[in-house]
Amino acid sequence: MAQRGPRSIAGGAGGAAEATSRLTARPRAAVRTTSIGAALENERVLGLLLLAPTLTLLALFIAYPFVMGVWISLTSASVGNVGTFVGLKNFVKLFGDTIFQRAAYNTFVYTAIATVAKLALGMWLAILLNRHFRAKRLVRASMLLPFIIPTVLSTLAWKWMFDPTFSVLNWTLYHAGFIQTRIGWLTDPTMALMSVIIVNVWRGMPFYAISLLAGLQTVSPELHEAAAIDGANAWQRFWRITWPLVLPVTMVVTLFSVIQTFADFQLVYALTGGGPANSTHLFATYAYQIGIVTGLLGEGAAASLAMFPMLFVIVIVQLWYIRRVEGA
Amino acid sequence: MAGRGGSGSGMVEGARWRKWVYFNVPMTVFIVGTLFPFYWMFVTAFRPDGELYRPWRAINNTPFWTTHPTFEHMVYLFKQTMFGTWMYNTMLIALASTVISLFCGLLAGYALARLRFPFAGSMGTGIFVTYLVPPTLLFIPLANIIRDFRLGDTPWSLILTYPTFLIPFCTWLLMGYFKTIPKELEECARIDGASRIRAMVQIVFPIATPGILSAGIFAFTLSWNEFLYALVFLSSPQQKTVPVGVLSELIRGDVFFWGPLMAGALLGSVPVALIYSFFVEHYVAGLTGAVKG
C-alpha cells in the first residue's frame, strides 16, 4: 500500500482541485441548512448511518447464523424437524466417532504441512521473482493464476491428472523410468491426503509469493550489499536481513492462510469427496456430509463449530499481532 | 555449459553455472508446475474421447498434445447441459454482490477512516473479525435462515450472503486507502460550503478510484470462486453457478465426462482470467492491501 500512496495522491490532487473549484463556482450548495442536512454534519449520526448497511448485512448473515448455529448444535434438529434441546450430546457423540477423529487429525496435518510448504515455496518464489529477468511481468502475472482461477475448476484438472486409470502424471513417471507400478494418487488413503495437500500448496503458494514479493520490494538492496561486503553469504543475508524485515508481512499472510486452510472445504470436496473410505475428510467436509447429505443438522452444526476454538485462537493472535505492529 | 557464449574467463563460467542452478532451473520448475494443470485442462478440452481414455502405460506418440483437435466437448457442454445459464447466473451473482459490497464498503470504510463516533474502534475490529470468519463455520444455520427468508434456490440467496465475506475485505482495503488521502482536500471543499456527504462523494471517492477498482476486482473473483454456499443454497440445475453446475451435472455417479468437464473448467475460468489479465496491477494491489490492511 505504501508504494502506491504517493503516486495516486499526486494523480488525484488535480482531480480534487478541479472538483473544489466546481463547488466554489456554485455557492448555492452552502445555503442548505435543513435539519436533515444539519444532522448529517454530525459525525456521530453520519458515522452510524454510513455503517448501517454493513452492520445490517453482517448482523443478519454472520451474527444471527452464528448464534443459531450454536443453538442448533445443542439440539437434535434434522431436516424438516426442529428437534429438542439435547445439551452437549452431539459433541459427545462426535468425539467418539472414528471418522470425526480422523477428520480432526487430517485437518491439523493438512493445515500444518500445507502451511509450511506454502510459506517455504512462496518465499523461494518471491525471492526469485524479486530479481531482474526477461518477461518478468508476464511470469509474475501468470504465477498468480492458480490463486485466481476458481478452485473447484482447477481442482478438477488435478483430479483428471490424478485419475487412477488415465493419469498423465503416472504416464510421465512410468515412461521416464521413475515408477514401475502406478501411484494411487486418490485411491490410497495416505497418498490421497498427500494429493490433497499438494493441490492446496499449488493453489495457495502464489498468494504467499506475491504478498511476500511486495514485502521484499521494500527491503533496500543496499543492506544486502553492505552485508555482502562484510562477508555474509546468501544464506546468512536471508536469515539476518530479509527474514526479519519481511516478518510482519509473513506473519499476517500466514495467519490468513492458516484460517483458510483450516476451514477449507471445496478443494477436498472436489478432489476426493472425503474418500477413499472417509480417509480425507476435514472438519468442513465432514460437517457437510453429516449436516446436508445425511440431514442431521444438529450434529453437522456441531462438527463445523468444532473448528471454532482453533479459529478463535488464530484470530486473537492475529489481532494482537496487528495491534503490536501498528503500535510500534 | 562450456563453449557457449565464448566467454573464456573461469569466473564468468562459474557465475553462469550458479545462475542456472540458483535461478533458471528453479524458476522453470515453478513455471511448469504452476501452469501445467491449466495446459492439461486446455489440451483435454480439445481432445477426442478416443485419445482421452487410453490405458495409462499405453504407447503414446502424442502424450502431451493432440493432432486431432475437436470441439465436440464444447458442443456437448452447450447442447446437453445448461452451461450457458450457469455462466449467466455466476456473472449476475458476482456482479450484484460486488456492487453491494463496494457500496457498503465505501461508506463503512469512509466512516471508520474519517469520522469520530462512539464505538468506532470496536466496530472496526468487529468488521475485521467477520473477515476472518470462514463460510464453512456458518453454512448449516445459514441454510436454515435462507429457507426461513424464502430465498432458497434463488440468486438472492447468494447475492445477499456473498457480501458477508466481501464487505469486510472491501471495508478494510478502502479504509486503508482513505487514510492515505490528505484530510486537507476535504476540508478545502467544506470551507467552500460543501456538505460532508458531498465532500465524501465528490472529492474523496474519485481520488480512491484505484482502491475501488482493486476492491471490486478482488471481490468479483472471490464471488466467482465461491462454492459452498452455492452448493448448499441452490438445488435446481437452471439456478446453479458454474463451479457447482460443472461438478454436479457432469459427474454422474462414478462416471466422469472428462472432455466436457475440462471444457467447462476452461470456459468457466475465462471471465476471471480476462478481468485479471486486464487489471493485474490492481488485483495485486488489492491482494497485498488486503493482507496489510
Describe this structure in words.
The complex is a heterodimer of chains A (328) and B (293). Chain A is an all-alpha fold. Chain A has one domain: MetI-like fold, CATH 1.10.3720. Chain A contains 16 helices and no strands. In chain A, α10 crosses α12 and α14 runs antiparallel to α15. Chain A is flat, with a radius of gyration of 26 Å. The N terminus of chain A is likely disordered. Chain B is mainly alpha-helical and 293 residues long. Chain B has a single domain, classed as MetI-like (MetI-like fold, Orthogonal Bundle). Chain B contains 15 helices and 2 strands. In chain B, β1 and β2 form a beta hairpin. Chain B is globular and about 80 Å long. The chains are: A mainly alpha (328), B mainly alpha (293). At the A-B interface, α1, α2, α3, α5 and α6 of A face α1, α4, α5, α6 and α8 of B.
Ordered list of secondary-structure elements with their pairings:
The complex is a heterodimer of chains A (328) and B (293).
Chain A lengths: L4 H21 L9 H7 L1 H31 L15 H7 L2 H32 L6 H8 L1 H4 L2 H11 L6 H8 L13 H28 L4 H9 L4 H29 L3 H6 L11 H12 L2 H9 L2 H20 L1
Helix pairs in contact in A: 3-15, 4-15, 5-10, 5-12, 10-12, 12-16, 14-15
Chain B lengths: L9 H36 L3 H4 L19 H9 L2 H32 L5 H12 L7 H10 L7 H6 L1 H17 L3 H9 L4 H12 L1 H17 L2 H6 L8 H8 L1 E2 L2 E2 L1 H21 L1 H13 L1
Antiparallel strand pairs in B: 1-2
Helix pairs in contact in B: 1-14, 3-14, 4-8, 4-11, 5-8, 8-11, 9-10, 11-15, 13-14
